[in-house]
Amino acid sequence: MLANAMKQLGPRFPIYQPVEGSFESVPDCATKIAAHGMYYTLTDGLFLNQYECRAQVMMQMRFDGCLGFPGGLVDPEDNSIEDGLNREITEEMGASSPALFFSRNDFAFKHLSKSTNYLLYFYVKRVPPEEYGFLERCVLNAREYGKETLGIIRVPCYTMDDGFKGLPTFFNNRFAGNAKLQLILGLLKAEILSLDELTKALDASKSN
Questions:
Q1: Which domains does the chain have, with CATH numbers?
Q2: Using one digit for the tens of pLDDT, what is the confidence trace for 119-162?
Q3: Per residue in 48-84, pLDDT tens?
Q4: Residue 4 and residue 6: Cα distance in Å, rounded?
Q5: How far does CA 27 lie from the centroid of its chain?
Q6: In this protein, which residues make up the domain named Nudix hydrolase (predicted)?
Q7: Do the bridges between strand 51-52 and strand 46-47 make them parallel or antiparallel, or are there none, so unpaired?
Q8: Strand, helix or coil at 116?
Q9: Are 68 and 103 in contact (CB under 8 A)?
Q10: CA 171, CA 151: separation in Å to the nearest integer?
Q11: 134 CB burial (10 A radius; 0-12, 13-18, 19+)
């Protein structure tokens, strides 16, 4: 499913090349490794008693004014990619509970940035609603809150009757790096939205 989506979305995001092979495989041209993660929880709630919310999906406003996911560069002293990601999670989110850390089982996909030669790992983790709320509150006391992280936001996983408000409008924000592509594939990986729904939202975002 993801492989097919990456192929279809490739022309929209030409700078980011999917990397196949084993988890550990690193292209020779890769100069650094970064890892980011998407937290989400499912919900059957309705917005305005009309639109299915489907899920609460977490992103953050970064220091540079762009939207992105928690995470960052993996340092040489990190024991693994997950260790590097969870170190960043602790710094940016203020969450230090192992239950909220990303594991190898949460790994979703990786891309190579043709502009920076960074190898970009992405993880997707479902958490219970109460833990999702806990994460949102934790960030206010995180070490990097007000510095690297300027706040947590939820992604609107619906499109309103005008065909533009909701997710299509959200897609018109400024995203850091390949965060927009990561969001699209993350929503697909979590089976929150279909590729057809995501493609329609992308097309609608460009036509307004």
A1: 2-206 (3.90.79.10)
A2: 999 999 999 999 999 999 999 999 999 999 999 999 999 999 99
A3: 989 999 999 999 999 999 999 999 999 999 999 999 9
A4: 5
A5: 22
A6: 38-181
A7: antiparallel
A8: coil
A9: no
A10: 18
A11: middle
Which residue blocks in the chain are alpha helix, DSSP H?
2-9, 81-93, 129-138, 167-170, 179-189, 195-206
What is the distance between the alpha carbons of residues 86 and 107, in angstroms, rounded to a whole number?
Answer: 13
Assigned token pair, 78: 């990190």
**Sequential DSSP letters for 150-197:** EEEEE----B-TTSSTBHHHHTTS-B-TTHHHHHHHHHHHTTSS-HHH
